[in-house]
Amino acid sequence: MDFQRMIRLLTIITALAFLLSACATVPLTGRKQLSLIPDSQMNTMSFQQYDQVLAESTLSTNAAETAMIKRVGARIQQSVEEYLAATGNSDHINGYAWDFNLIESNQINAWCMPGGKVAFYTGILPVCEDETGVAVVMGHEIAHAIAEHGSERMSHSMMVQMGGMALNEAIKNEPEETQALYMSAFAVGSQYGAMLPFSRQHESEADHMGLVFMAMAGYDPQQAPVFWQRMASLGGEKPPEFMSTHPADETRVRQLNEWMPEALKYYQAER
Ligand SMILES: [Zn+2]
């Protein structure tokens, strides 16, 4: 074997070993995912971004609605923590610093950044209608964070842009490039005000996990398909996260009903 071929072979072996070690498992669904960015790195970027969004936004002065967002958030946070503890996965949320804020804006929007940083916009409250509707959205958004969908998306773009072998070095030596990738993975900002649309697979997974999380927190999961139908009936003018095409409305409602028996077990156990 010539030297060149040996080097190539070694490179492939090292890359495979790296990728195998760079896999994570999504809680609850058990799906394996690519994970190239340390959680601590994701959280640091997320916390900075969250502070910036809050600084550039107006918080709601409606005390009752603000309290409701914080109450629903705290209940779902507690359920997630209990579930992860019961399944031996508490370290999955190491470094989380949960926060639940209600922003004054007529956008129909809500999101949760890595590390448990949640924002609701007042514009989504009429679609939620009540506390259970808020729990549908809260469960879904927290699920995106717990399933580390943003980190997974960022890992894929890192693979493309920086190449697998350079990743650890890239994070250490190129903080600005890493930050830029974070911005392109989330596009959360005062200007944009919304996360980029997640893939259909990520949406389905967030629906599934969110349904279970809301049920664990004592909210009726049967309100989830009702909420998403209400959201779908609004048509356009929703930020990407809530576009009715992701996933197709009928698919979403059908899947939610398929997961309903699982969620109802948790809901009934709560009562
Ligand atoms: Zn979503």
Question: What can you tell me about this protein's structure?
Answer:
There is one protein chain. With 271 residues, the protein is mainly alpha-helical. The termini are far apart. Helix 9 (200-216) runs parallel beside helix 11. The model is unreliable at 189-194 (pLDDT under 50). The longest helix has 24 residues, at 63-86. The protein has helices spanning 3-21, 39-55, 63-86, 125-128, 131-146, 149-162, 167-173, 175-186, 200-216, 223-233, 249-270; strands at 23-25, 32-34, 99-103, 110-113, 117-121. Helix content is 60%, strand content 7%. The chain has a three-stranded mixed sheet, sandwiched between helices. Strands 1-2 form a two-stranded antiparallel ribbon. Bound molecules: zinc ion. Residues 140, 144, 198, 203, 206, 241 line the site of zinc ion (ZN).
Low-confidence stretches: 189-194
Q: What best-fitting shape do the alpha-carbon axes yield?
A: globular
Could you tell me the mean pLDDT? 85
Can you list the strand order of the major beta sheet?
3-5-4
Proportion of β residues?
5-15%
How many DSSP E strands? 5
Key terms for this structure?
271 residues, mainly alpha, 3-stranded mixed β-sheet, binds zinc ion
Question: What is shown here, in short?
Answer:
With 271 residues, the protein is mainly alpha-helical. The chain has helices at residues 3-21, 39-55, 63-86, 125-128, 131-146, 149-162, 167-173, 175-186, 200-216, 223-233, 249-270, and strands at residues 23-25, 32-34, 99-103, 110-113, 117-121. It is globular and about 70 Å long.
